[in-house]
Design a protein that fits this description.
Largest sheet: 2 strands, antiparallel
Strand content: 5-15%
Structural class: mainly alpha
Number of strands: 2
Distance between the termini: 26 Å
Number of helices: 3
Radius of gyration: 11 Å
Strand order of the largest sheet: 1-2
Oligomer: single chain
Length: 58
């Protein structure tokens, strides 16, 4: 699900975790769900975050 297209604003996991756009709680989740060697757009990160937080707990 990572973006490698030219001209797309994609960020590394480290950049996402340093961003002020996410709360500390969301950064903890992103630290777990994002892969170190991939780049993500903000939309992709938010979508992955939403999917993770809305998973049903058994």
């Amino acid at each position: 699900m990572s973006t490698q297209e030219a001209g797309t604003n994609a960020f590394s996991k480290k950049q996402m975790l340093a961003s002020t756009l996410f709360t500390p709680k969301h950064k903890d989740v992103l630290d777990v769900i994002l892969q170190d060697d991939n780049r993500y757009t903000l939309d992709e990160a938010e979508q992955l975050l939403k999917l993770f937080l809305n998973e049903e707990v058994i």
